[in-house]
């Protein structure tokens, strides 16, 4: 089977967006049961707990292990809600199936490794459990899709993805850089695969969970995975990003869901008018860019005739500084200007290079 044939229907059973929640790590039977009891099951439909925890550094709490499966099972029996846990190898996968875990997710550190994903896929062959794939730690969409392909090839039909952000060397306010465009490209290519946002891991801090969750619904995600704990500050792992079940309920009540479209005349006539304006402006932009490249080619020709190097750092730095200043004054963001100017400069240098190479 191939990913295109995957059906979304396992997620359409939920009236509200799917919310998977529970502690980062199962710590004790009591901790697990206490959290499960405090979840408002109308808003939070699936209980999660990590029992095998891949940690960045040795010496951190690495999970209670298989004993935690008994606790999850007890949650399922007592509260009649589906349960979810992370699996990181074939033996985890087999144990989770034995304990009738309903949702199995493959973590970001496993998705990066095709051998791991393959052994998990084979251990889960033909399962009708729901398997969710977190994005790999590095921003590589093909690796993420590759994991889905490996699972689909083993006859696993109920698939979904979890966007938990990407590791980055650059400091930002987030623990893991969301790079929304990567998840959106996946959604664009595979609209049949449910897309779930994990604001706990994206933010790494509880005060930002609400805004990231809202952003996910602005982008029409299908659900959330959020870490909750009765005493978040005391949690044995990821304490800073956990919230109480009541805090999560408040976030979910306050959140605005967005629909795919609006069929009213008011909306569609205004939208069409604005889109017409955008089409016209895009045409002008492209025309201007093409003219700019023609001038760059003339400069390339001139440099060739005088044997001058293409890349001129002084000119490029002055030009960039000026354009950044003007652009920011016009309300364009610094990130966007950087990206745009670098792309324009690269094309200009490439075109001049072609001219130099032409005999
Ligand atoms: C066009 C030139 O060549 C290169 C491209 C530039 C550009 O596209 O603006 C600027 C500096 C050079 O690195 C130039 O030297 O002016």
Overview in brief:
With about 350 residues, the chain is of the alpha/beta class. Helices cover about 50% and strands about 10% of the residues. The mean pLDDT is about 95.
Order of helices and strands: EHEHEHEHHEHEHEHHEHHHH
Q: Using the coordinates above, name the CATH class of the largest domain.
A: Alpha Beta
Helix content: 40-55%
CATH superfamily of the largest domain: Aldolase class I
Uncertain residue ranges: none
CATH architecture of the largest domain: Alpha-Beta Barrel
Q: How many strand elements?
A: 8
Strand content: 5-15%
Spatial extent as radius of gyration: 25 Å
Q: What is the mean predicted local confidence, pLDDT?
A: 96
How many helices? The count is 13
Number of domains: 2
Whole-Å distance between the termini? Answer: 51 Å
CATH topology of the largest domain: TIM Barrel
The strand order across the widest sheet is 1-2-3-4-5-6-7-8
Ligands bound, unique:
the ligand C=C(O[C@@H]1C=C(C(=O)O)C=C[C@H]1O)C(=O)O
Shape assignment: elongated
Organism: Apibacter adventoris
Enzyme class: isomerase
Coiled coil: 264-291
GO molecular function, one term: chorismate mutase activity
Detailed description of the structure:
- It comes from Apibacter adventoris.
- This is chorismate mutase.
- Keywords: Coiled coil, Transferase.
- Its EC number is 5.4.99.5.
- The longest helix is centred in the last third of the chain and has 42 residues.
- 49% of the residues lie in helices and 10% in strands.
- The chain contains 13 helices and eight strands.
- It has an eight-stranded parallel barrel, surrounded by five helices.
- By secondary structure, the protein is α/β, with parallel strands linked by helices.
- Helix 3 runs parallel beside helix 5.
- Strand 6, helix 7 and strand 7 form a beta-alpha-beta unit.
- The chain is elongated.
- The protein folds into two domains: 252 residues, Aldolase class I (TIM Barrel, Alpha-Beta Barrel); 93 residues, Chorismate Mutase Domain, subunit A (Up-down Bundle).
């Amino acid at each position: 089977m191939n990913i295109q044939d995957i059906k979304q229907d396992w997620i359409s059973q939920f009236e509200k967006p799917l919310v998977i929640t529970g502690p980062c790590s199962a710590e004790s039977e009591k901790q697990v049961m206490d959290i499960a009891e405090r979840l408002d099951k109308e808003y939070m439909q699936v209980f999660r707990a990590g029992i095998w925890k891949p940690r960045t550094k040795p010496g951190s709490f690495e999970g209670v292990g298989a004993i935690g499966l008994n606790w999850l099972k007890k949650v399922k029996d007592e509260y009649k809600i589906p349960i979810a846990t992370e699996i990181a190898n074939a033996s985890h996968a087999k144990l989770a199936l034995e304990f009738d875990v309903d949702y199995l997710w493959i973590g970001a550190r496993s998705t990066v490794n095709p051998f791991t994903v393959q052994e998990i896929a084979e251990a889960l062959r033909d399962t009708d459990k729901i398997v969710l794939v977190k994005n790999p730690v590095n921003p590589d969409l093909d690796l993420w899709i590759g994991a889905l392909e490996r699972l689909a090839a083993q006859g696993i039909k109920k698939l979904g993805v979890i966007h938990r952000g990407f590791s980055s060397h650059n400091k930002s306010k987030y623990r893991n850089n969301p790079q929304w465009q990567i998840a959106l490209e996946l959604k664009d290519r595979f609209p049949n695969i449910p897309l779930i946002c994990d604001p706990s891991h994206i933010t790494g801090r509880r005060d930002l969970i609400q805004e990231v969750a809202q952003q996910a619904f602005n982008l029409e995600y299908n659900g959330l995975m959020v870490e909750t704990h009765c005493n978040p500050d005391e949690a044995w792992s990821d304490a800073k990003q956990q919230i109480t079940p009541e805090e999560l309920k408040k976030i979910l009540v306050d959140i605005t869901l967005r629909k795919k479209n609006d069929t009213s005349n008011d909306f569609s006539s205004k939208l069409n008018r604005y889109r017409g304006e955008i089409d016209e402006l895009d045409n002008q932009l492209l025309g201007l860019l093409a003219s700019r490249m023609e001038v760059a080619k003339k400069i390339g020709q001139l440099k060739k005739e005088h044997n001058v190097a293409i890349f001129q750092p002084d000119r490029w730095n002055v030009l960039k500084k000026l354009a950044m200043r003007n652009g920011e004054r016009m309300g364009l963001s610094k990130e966007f200007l950087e990206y745009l100017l670098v792309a324009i400069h690269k094309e200009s240098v490439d075109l001049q290079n072609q001219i130099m190479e032409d005999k």
